[in-house]
Design brief:
With 119 residues, the chain is mainly α. It is built from 7 helices and no strands.
């Protein structure tokens, strides 16, 4: 990946070098997983569940989001997913909706960065 693309991703909340290190320097693998992130539907599933007040469904989807974002070094989004999981586990639908709304906006921002770099 070009250095200006890495800088753009870092500006969008993805620690590229940390993620690359996690994948033992395998840039092709890591870059491919970042592109695959764009087709992950867990975020939309979680939004659907949160909007319906389905905390059980939201828990499953947000847990998957947390794993994905942590693995891909999307650290700010990962932190929001962790906070959303805490709210879900506490059964606090309003707090879940608030925190997840922030997470979903962050997800859209990172996804847009990835689309721009890919094109």
């Amino acid at each position: 990946m070009k250095s200006e693309d890495i800088k753009r991703l870092e500006d969008c909340g993805l620690d590229y070098n940390e993620g690359l290190e996690r994948f033992l320097g395998e840039a092709e693998l890591f870059d491919g997983l970042l592109i695959n992130f764009l087709t992950d539907n867990e975020f939309d599933e979680a939004k659907h569940c949160v909007d319906k007040g389905d905390l059980k469904g939201a828990e499953k989807a947000v847990h998957a989001m947390k794993s994905t974002t942590g693995t891909l070094s999307m650290n700010g989004l990962y932190k929001l997913c962790c906070e959303a999981m805490d709210a879900i586990r506490e059964g606090d639908a309003e707090r879940t909706k608030l925190i997840f709304g922030k997470a979903y906006e962050e997800y859209k921002r990172i996804a847009e960065c990835l689309r721009e770099i890919r094109s």
